[in-house]
Amino acid sequence: MRHGFRFGMIAAVLAALFCAPAIAADEPNGAAKALTAQPHDDFPGGVIRLRDMPYRVLIGYHPITADIYVPTQGSGPYPAVVYGHGGGWANGSPRNPGTPENMAALAARGYVVMAINYRFYHEAKFPGPVQDAKAALRWIRSNAALYGVDTKHVAYWGVSAGGYLGAELGTSCGVKALEPEPEGKPSPDSGTAAIITDPTQSDCADAVALWFTPIDFPKMDAQALPNSLKHGTPESSESQMLGCALDKCSKAWLAAANPTTYINAKNPPFLLMHGDNDHRVPLQQSKDFYAALLAKGVEAQLVVVPGADHIWVGATPEQKKEILQTTFEFLDKHLKP
């Protein structure tokens, strides 16, 4: 996993905030005033990106980081969205092609967006990556004052492997076995002392948007289109992430890793989007998950994109615009009171 760290930047931002007078809730540009004084990237619409911000420290691991997109125009607090990238739990980053532009476009609508890295399967098996995503929800709420976040309106948006993390965290709110592990206490001279996470903050999502997401791993091969990626081999991403070949994993382990296991009427609203020509993750995965959500009384929406393969390969420019717009409108509906 790629890690470039700007720990001194975080300490400086925190010092600026906590030594400065309180910012009025209705003051334009709110918390962004302190953030714009730090090194950042500028995006259209008055959005800034702070790169490689560490949000999680675990003994024995590199600090886990995120890119934070913050609107500088308008007044907060803003709803927040944590975003999980794809890559088979083995590669990828918050800067996958097209991702920064999408994150910035969402931030320009009045969101704080946290695009996360998480541990890959060579670093941590299940439930490690899920716990990282849950920790990100807790961290963004813990640092609400710093980024101008409305802690009561925090969603998760994920794609493919990152979407799986969202499906699992979205249904498993309050499940003790999947809560983030206790974090280490870095020494003051390590550069990570400025990371603040309040363990009493919620690690639950208020809405979940998922693109082409795997859900029930053992069923994937039987549901797949011809000439699709195989998932049941010991070398598959799913087997590697679980730490066992799918046909060798215990039923209890497979159930723990299946988001459907935890569905209940208290789950947040879900948006599921999937192409009907997906050769990596079968469309039936989203269809079955959608049906299971509805059966338990969970608000859910399924959008099938004709002709689209994984990561929207084969979708027209018009379809891709509509996909993004549908996602944004879903988040607006559930995060902007």
Q: CATH topology, what is it called?
A: Rossmann fold
Which regions contain 5 or more consecutive residues with pLDDT less than 50? 1-28
Q: What's the structural domain tally?
A: 1
Element-level helix/strand string: HHEEEEHEHHEHEHHHEHEH
Keywords:
single chain, 337 residues, alpha/beta, Rossmann fold, 9-stranded mixed beta sheet, 31% helix, globular
What's the topology here?
Elements: H1 7-18, H2 32-35, E1 41-43, E2 47-56, E3 64-71, E4 78-84, H3 99-107, E5 112-116, H4 128-142, H5 144-147, E6 149-159, H6 161-171, E7 208-211, H7 220-223, H8 237-242, H9 251-256, E8 270-275, H10 283-295, E9 300-305, H11 317-335
Parallel strand pairs: 4-5, 4-6, 6-7, 7-8, 8-9
Antiparallel strand pairs: 1-2, 2-3, 3-5
Task: Characterize the structure shown.
The structure is a single chain. This protein is an alpha/beta fold and 337 residues long. It has a single domain (7-335), classed as Rossmann fold. The chain is built from eleven helices and nine strands. The chain has a nine-stranded mixed β-sheet, sandwiched between helices. Strand 1 and strand 2 (47-56) form a beta hairpin. The chain is globular, with a radius of gyration of 19 Å. It starts with 6 loop residues before the first helix and ends with a helix.
Please provide a brief summary of the model:
The protein has helices at 7-18, 32-35, 99-107, 128-142, 144-147, 161-171, 220-223, 237-242, 251-256, 283-295, 317-335; strands spanning 41-43, 47-56, 64-71, 78-84, 112-116, 149-159, 208-211, 270-275, 300-305.
